[in-house]
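#lab-general

N.A. 3:47 PM
ok so I finally got the sequence cleaned up, no stray characters, all 135 residues accounted for. can someone with queue access submit it? mine expired

B.Y. 3:52 PM
send it over

N.A. 3:53 PM
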Amino acid sequence: MKSLHGRRIATVAVGAATALSVITAPAQAASWSSSLTNASPGFESRRWTDSGGATTIKFTGCSSGSYKAVNVLLRKDTVGPDPSYVNASFTKCYDSSTSTSTGNWADHGSGNYYFMVNSGAVGILVSVRSLTVSY
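B.Y. 4:20 PM
back already:
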C-alpha cells in the first residue's frame, strides 16, 4: 500500500510541475522569411499579426544597381492612415551576398504590421537574397 501511495504523490508532483512549466513558459517570438526581386519603391511586404513586442527585420544580400542603400519603413495596418515608425537605412547587406543589415523597432502594441521599401524613392529596384522578420 505504501508503494502505491508513494506513486500517487510522485504522479501528482510531476503533474503539478508540468502544469507550472506550461503556465510560466516564456512567449515564443514568431517570424517569417522571404526574398525580394526587383521590388519597386513603395513596395509593401506581406502583413503579419503581432501580439506586441519588438520587431526585427534582417536583409541579407542586397542589390539595386549602383545605389547601395535600401530604406525600410515599419508600418502598422490600421483603419485610416497607417502610422509609420523609424525608417532604417540598410547598407551593410550590399557588402556581399552573405552580408546582413538589421533593423530593430520598439514595441508598438498588438496589430497587423508590414514594411515598405524605399518609400518616396524613384526608379530604384531592390533585390534581397534573403529577409527575415521576427516579432
